[in-house]
Input
Amino acid sequence: MTMPRTVLGLLLVCAMLSIALPARAEMCRIADPTDTSLNVRDTPGGKVINKLRNGRKVFIDTVSWDAFNDDGSFKWVHVTGEYKGQWRDWGWVFRRHLDCGDHREGDAFPIIFESAKEMIPTGIVVPWSLSPEPKLEHECFYYGDGGYGMSLSDDLVKAYTARGYTLEQLCIVLRTADLKYDPETGERLPTFVVVDPKALAQAKQSGFFEGFEATPEMPLHAPDCFAHSNAQMPGSGYATLDIACDIRFDPWTGVELSPLEQAYYKKNVVLRIEGDAGPSGVIGGKELIVSGQNRATNASIRMVTTFRNKGN
Output
């Protein structure tokens, strides 16, 4: 079983190298539970230089590796965003006071698989246990010990090749964590998580999650516009794909982007998968995974097939 990093790299903000490249860059909304404006500081824990009201869109472009919350998530993140037609460099805020599009109750996705074998009807298999796992006809490229193995069926590859994809492009898109929305239409993509039932049971009993209990949420469908994107193949444990799409929605949260935000994404943002090994205490959508909801069924897998065939 591969071992993921604390947070997999999802986006690469090419122009910004201040304190650290973001583990994930994302569009979020201010969500201070006290219903007051959120303090913005000049450095992590530093002087208050501004306040941002609840509901305002911001963009995480940098994270601080110096402090973490109890669950292993980053404590401080640096945010930017649009204000009155200009791009503003806001400053540092508490990450836990941002709403970054986590799972919403009643959402049909992600589908939760308890074994790679259950995934076979989708045409995608991600091994996630110590026991022997099935492999489909086309194996995705290796990009590091902490990366996610994946194999694809011949039928699936042929279908996406007909849509203009190469195998390399397809493997990057389908292994991009938390890619949940079509960047051109804003439509919710079918997604999945694979859990290790034994590790999950132990974590529930102890109350301590190491991060090996489940994969991140990943897409079961690759939007057509990514087939026109340029792939940079593995180097130093990562691979990237530019976003040759008419980016009108944030691919991770589904938030509609203003013209200025669209321009910012087109200039600065690419898909990125990282393969550095290491333990993780952070599992996105942990409550859903523990609840036992959204477990894979024949009906939910049929929904995926119907979604993929739409527009063909």
The chain has two domains: 26-99, 111-309. Residues 298-309 form the longest helix (12 residues).
